[in-house]
Amino acid sequence: MDFKKDILLVDTELTGLDADRHEIIQLAAVLLDRKSLKEKAFFNSYVRPQKWQSRDPEAMKVNGLKLESLKNAPALTSVIRAFAKKFDGRKVLLAAYVGWVDKRFLLKAFEKAKISWRFDYHYLDVWSLAYGALARRGQLRNRKEFAGFCLEDLIKRYGIKLPGSHHDALFDCRAEAEVLRQVIKRG
What we know:
Number of helices: 7
CATH class: Alpha Beta
Number of strands: 5
Number of domains: 1
Low-confidence stretches: none
Radius of gyration: 16 Å
Order of helices and strands: EEEHHHEHEHHH
CATH superfamily: Ribonuclease H-like superfamily/Ribonuclease H
Strand content: 15-25%
CATH architecture: 2-Layer Sandwich
Strand order of the largest sheet: 3-2-1-4-5
Distance between the termini: 10 Å
Largest sheet: 5 strands, mixed
Shape: globular
């Protein structure tokens, strides 16, 4: 497969899902070559929280991040500036696993940093591609196994082995990249 642009897979770890109350505490991205889908570059940064008191306990259980490990991280505006400097939004196709959450938080972060959003309004949703591929092959019959499945389900399904742990944003980007490769390879 040959995409028109390189693919930029992004993932965030958040203090919750409400973009008005919660915040990004880790931002990662993996840039994939449009033809080979090989990793060309990556970005990974923790973000010092400003509204820690409004964090959602459930979200914090998922990502496992603690204030002690974030208090010396750069501020969100610095992280967004570094991210925007590294990746030209006009030259990449933004992608994510159920990316509307990440995109919503990124839009707000770019606005806060007073940086123009240069990414195309289209984005590639890896979950949708995987769901479609599995449905087409008749592999969604077991409702208990694939009741809305998460990235971890696809990591197991495709036998993906990567160093690191799930719910680290960079690990998740690399896992999403491998899921994308498997979906395209298997058709």
